[in-house]
Amino acid sequence: MKHVPEDLATFGGTPAFATPRSVGRPNIGDRAALFARLDAALDRAWLSNGGPLAEEFEQRVAAIAGTEFCVATCNATAGLQLALRATGVLGEVIVPSLTFAATAHAVAWLGLTPVFCDVDPLTGALDPEHARSLIGPRTSAILAVHVWGRAAPVPELEELAAEHGLRLFFDAAHAFGCTSAGRPIGGNGDGEVFSFHSTKFVNSFEGGALVTDDPELAARARRMRNFGIARAEQVELIGLNAKLNEAAAAMGLTSLDSMERFIAHNRENYYAYRDGLAGLPGISVLGFDERERNNYQYVILTVDERRAGLDRDTLLAILAAENVHGRAYFSPGCHQMRPYADGTRLPHTERLAAQVLAVPTGIAVSAADAAAIAGIIRVAITQPAAAARAA
Ligand SMILES: Cc1ncc(COP(=O)(O)O)c(C=O)c1O
Q1: Ligand 1 mean position to 143 CA, how many Å?
Q2: Which CATH number characterizes residue 12's domain?
Q3: What is the pLDDT of residues 243-290, one digit of tens each?
């Protein structure tokens, strides 16, 4: 336990952790179950192309998402592209800037134009009123993000999309297992896309899933996922190869088996951070709506330099010296990344991007670890000048 700035590793103290505590360290489920599934796949000699494990994975994901259809993909980026392409989206797509680059890239890679929208200054959720102001003659869709697993304003966006005849999709990469107004995230808009990348709390090494209640979208996406093939040797659409292979599905199923344990663990960590950081000037822990079901996979702090006396990047450096590897997640906003920077200014996104800090959680981080990390932050913030000098 650290009590004074001199205890901090950045001042020459012993790092709080001998081994790293990092954002995005994979949750590993039951290895024996994983190997049994892999063995069965090898015995079947059925390794991809809609194998039984991928099918089972789709059924279980659809059940959790509360949707009729699930099209499992090799990653979420491909899932987003399938959703946009299968619905014939053209021209401009409104996206938040405060997101992982993949959201914007999925749009741009299809030759569409991402139009960056600002967010709510407190929650980071896409601002429907700003989105409204960005709608023009070339707009054909909105791709919102349930950023950090907190639901985007679904009803407002559904209304806006209906009013203007736009397609509406949700990048739900962070929001598997969550609800919005008590309904599972999955069935909103035209379709939603989950990520099962290794860093996600449920993972399939790499993987994703497009979920929807639209039979036509599901059928087209399913074909496009497999080179546009409808039946043997019959190619009906331009497609890509975005299939989920059996090894990935084996991992995904094994991860699903432990999903409740992962959520409970993340929840404990979130409370440990929240309690440990309570009342600290300039540090806020982004809350969860406890009326909803949350996956608690991202614990997000904001660091207000004026009140904390330290900026986010200094705090990241102080933590790194303790072997605690947080992330400036997401910073910068996509609109300020080189491929997209055109002088657009989004004040709320830019302020949040400068302040947000994701702290480590997941199975590799215990609640005691989270409390200790909060303790480090407390020492750094209580003596900010000394800590800043040292960093
Ligand atoms: C918001 C968001 N969208 C999309 C993706 C892309 O997911 P994938 O790596 O499965 O393609 C990520 C990945 O972390 C993400 O955070």
Answers
A1: 13
A2: 3.90.1150.10
A3: 999 999 999 999 999 999 999 999 999 999 999 999 999 999 999 999
**How many angstroms does the Cα of residue 319 sit away from the middle of ligand 1?**
25
| DSSP line for 118-167 | -B-TTT--B-HHHHHHH--TTEEEEEEE-GGGPPP-HHHHHHHHHHHT-E
In ligand 1, the atom with minimum distance to the C-alpha of 78 is: 11
Ligand 1 center from residue 76 Cα (angstroms)? 6
173 CA → ligand 1 middle, Å:
5
Q: Which of 225, 257, 289 is the last residue of a domain?
A: 257
Q: What is the DSSP string of 180-220?
A: ETTEETTSSSSEEEEE--TTSSS--SS-EEEEES-HHHHHH
The last residue of a domain, from among 257, 289, 307 = 257
User: Domain limits at 76?
Assistant: 31-257
Q: Are residues 110 and 231 in the same domain?
A: yes
The verdict on 12 and 116 lying in the same domain is no
Nearest of 193, 209, 203 to residue 243 by alpha carbon: 209
Count of structural domains, the chain: 2
**From ligand 1's centre to the CA of 79, what distance in Å?**
10
Are 131 and 250 in the same domain? yes
Ligand 1 centroid – CA 390 distance (Å): 35
Together in a domain, 159 and 171:
yes
Pocket test for ligand 1, best of 75, 95, 100 (most atoms within 8 A of CB): 100
- Same domain for 208 and 84: yes
Is the peptide bond preceding residue 332 cis, with omega within 30 degrees of 0? yes
Give tens-digit pLDDT for 201-224: 999 999 999 999 999 999 999 999
Ligand 1 pocket, residues with Cβ under 6 angstroms: 75-77, 99-100, 102-103, 145, 171, 173-174, 195, 197, 208
Cis omega before residue 330 (within 30°)? Answer: yes
Q: Do both 140 and 273 map to the same domain?
A: no
**Residue minimizing CA distance to atom 16 of ligand 1:** 100
Domain match, 240 and 252 both = yes
- Among the atoms of ligand 1, which is closest to the Cα of residue 145? 1
For 364-390, the pLDDT digits (tens) are 999 999 999 999 999 999 876 666 655
The phi, psi pair for 66, rounded to 5°, reads 70, 30
